[in-house]
Write a structure and sequence with these properties.
By secondary structure, the protein is an alpha/beta fold. The chain is 36% helix and 20% strand. Helix 2 links the parallel strand 3 and strand 4.
Length: 500
């Protein structure tokens, strides 16, 4: 029996798709066929129907065409009505289920991972598949031994991206509601860095058509070798690139996407990053308009300054939850449906932002569309997008340190370290444990001990303990890290070398 479970990556399937540096290919055609067979069986059971329609799209990776051909042929051979959407963003593939009524959609992508990697994301009308769904599919795929004869018949084409772009354009027209209704972005200069992923559509099929000047945009050509930088809004080189593009072209706004456009960040007219906590703050401002007192669900590593901004400046409720964009989205849905709370936004600091009004879909293009609408309105008042978050307190220092757990059964060991750290902090003067901890333990240091906080947590997917640290004073992180170092070095099954 072929072991496939290691291909599970959260709520996706991911593996090596191109041999590189001697690493063999995981996503072989044979394995892909087995996985798709198991996926189709899973769908039939989930939807209680046998006649399925499925749409498929893919990102710009070198291996995407090969994988797409195998997936399309497998689906056709299984009697599925298949639509090939071609080069597509991940959010647009979910929207194919909404706009065209297909039963399910697949996006071939590995997001920001290196060029040799690739993977599969699955959607139904309910949203993306859960981790348990992926486990069930892979478990079933492992047991499949019968080979099927692949066909290439009856595969239809669907211009899903055109409908997706048209909807974004209409959203901007209505949102800005300018005198020149068809050209609401006329006079605005907005540059896009697509990082050679699929994000060029936003510059060419949304911004330009609406009158924006996009000269100075970068890396719009799809190129799966990613020759310029990793398409990732959390990557320093990538963010430097869009900052330079804004500065050099004297743009009013800069936009950067990850490879498949489910994440984004932006840059203001002064070439300052609006990323991570700043992006969460900006999205929260937008989401709470018309949702007074609403709850913003974020991941666990958001700053104290963001908490103050959401609750004091915006009058909202900040619900700090776990890392992992699906965790954050599912928690917002739970609060909305089970507790009756007004939860208009779920957002992770990585740039995954899901608005309730948009099916709680993490969609980078939808997020920046909301931001651009605000920017166009503010321009009429002589203001810029940065003015909306000028009261956000930014920590002077921040640091993340990762500690590899050198055990096969790592989870229990990691959790025991977290429990020990919590007990230590509960009994140390000048340090207090946060009353609510949905993930790991968050502790606060007073002004004599670093004036900030630390969060010790398990990594979502890897055998790692992760320490996040922020301070409001120069040298504060060092004080807090020295305290942590005196605690952590006694644990022999951790690689603590990075602390030095």
């Amino acid at each position: 029996m072929d072991n496939l479970m290691y291909l599970k990556s959260g709520t996706d399937i991911r593996g090596t798709a191109i041999e590189k540096d001697g690493k063999p290919v995981d996503l072989t055609d044979e394995r892909l066929t087995k996985i798709i067979c198991a996926y189709v069986d899973f769908l039939k059971n989930k939807l209680s129907k046998n006649d399925l329609s499925i749409a498929l799209g893919y990102d710009s990776r070198v291996s995407s065409i090969r994988i797409a051909e195998t997936v399309l042929k497998t689906l056709s051979s299984l009697g599925v009505k298949v639509y090939n959407c071609g080069l597509s963003s991940t959010p647009s593939m979910f929207m194919s289920v909404v706009n065209f009524g297909v039963d399910s959609a697949i996006e071939i992508t590995a997001s920001h991972l290196p060029m040799e990697m690739n993977g599969l994301k699955f959607f139904t009308r309910e949203g993306g598949f859960s981790g348990d769904d992926i486990k069930e599919i892979l478990s079933s795929a492992e047991k499949i031994e019968t080979e099927i004869e692949l066909k290439n018949e009856g595969i239809l084409t669907l211009d899903n991206m055109e409908k997706y772009c048209s909807d974004l354009r209409e959203m901007i027209k209505k949102g800005v509601s300018s005198e020149d209704y068809e050209k609401p972005l006329k006079g605005l200069k907005i540059v896009v860095d697509a990082g050679n992923g699929v994000g060029a559509f936003y510059a060419e099929k949304v911004l330009k058509i609406l009158g924006a000047d996009t000269d100075g945009s970068r890396y719009l050509d799809p190129d799966g070798t990613f020759p310029n930088h990793i398409p990732n809004p959390e990557n320093k080189v990538a963010m430097k690139s869009i900052c330079e593009a804004v500065y050099e072209s004297k743009a009013d706004l800069g936009i950067i996407f990850d490879t498949d456009c489910d994440r984004a960040a932006c840059v203001d007219e002064k070439a300052n990053e609006i990323n991570r906590n700043k992006l969460v703050a900006l999205a929260s401002y937008i989401a709470l308009k018309g949702n007074d007192g609403g709850t913003i669900v974020t991941d666990s590593v958001t700053s104290d300054g963001l908490n103050v901004f959401i609750e004091k400046d915006l009058g909202g409720v900040h619900h700090r939850f776990k890392r992992g964009y699906k965790n954050v989205i599912d928690e917002a849905i739970r609060l909305q449906n089970e507790e009756g709370k007004n939860a208009p936004l779920a957002i992770e600091t990585s740039g995954h932002a899901a608005f309730r009004e948009n099916y709680y879909l993490d969609d980078g293009a939808y997020l920046v569309t909301k931001i651009i609408i605000e920017a166009a309105k503010l321009r009429k008042e002589g203001k810029t997008i940065g003015s909306l978050i000028e009261n956000l307190q930014i920590p002077l220092e921040e640091k993340e340190v990762r500690f590899t757990i050198k055990l096969k059964d790592f989870k229990d060991y990691g959790l025991s370290v977290i429990d020990d750290f919590k007990r230590l902090c509960e009994n140390t003067d000048g340090i207090s444990v946060s009353p609510v901890n949905h993930e790991g333990v968050r502790v606060n240091f007073d002004k004599n001990n670093g004036d900030g906080w630390q969060l010790l947590r398990m990594s979502v997917h890897e055998p790692l303990l992760v320490l996040n640290c922020e301070s409001n004073e120069q040298g504060g992180c060092r004080k807090m890290l020295d305290f942590f170092k005196s605690f952590i070095t006694k644990y022999g099954e951790l690689d603590t070398s990075k602390l030095s």
